Amino acid sequence: MAWIYLAIAGVLEVVWAFYMKQSQGFSRIVPSVITIVAMIASFALLSIAMRSLPLGTSYTIWTGIGAVGAFLAGVIVLGEQASPLRIGAALLIVSGLALMKLSSPG
Hints:
Keywords: Cell membrane, Membrane, Transmembrane, Transmembrane helix, Transport
Protein name: Guanidinium exporter
Pfam families: Multi_Drug_Res
Radius of gyration: 15 Å
Oligomer: single chain
Membrane topology: Multi-pass membrane protein
Subcellular location: Cell membrane
């Protein structure tokens, strides 16, 4: 169950990062509220997952999901550049996440 909480926390990290961009420096109320609510939920689920998963694994997976997810959201939704180097970097992050998962108990 901890891995499910961690995955949801990672997805919520993407949500809050995306809406933080949409908030334009917290000057728009609805995206700002979504950012804060998603951030709190993400941190809460991360802390629950950390009850049974190692710190390094939990935090690495959480930030990795957020980093790759935010990259994909930027490219797909916001039309940001998807250069070969950026795609390669995202693939390296995903590879690291897979190795972290394989090396962790539970």
